[in-house]
Design a protein that fits this description.
Shape: rod-shaped
Largest sheet: none
Order of helices and strands: H
Helix content: over 70%
Length: 41
């Protein structure tokens, strides 16, 4: 039972990390896109 709880916790941490990664990539991409738009227009 403890092993199952550990796996569940590990899965949650992985999901949280993936979510954060996507969020940061999205934020960086958006600001970079705005910067490129500003430079090219």
């Amino acid at each position: 039972m403890e092993k199952y709880a550990y796996l569940l916790e590990n899965k949650f941490i992985k999901i949280a990390l993936v979510g954060l990664s996507i969020y940061f990539i999205f934020r960086l991409g958006k600001s970079f896109g705005e910067f490129l738009y500003y430079v090219t227009h």
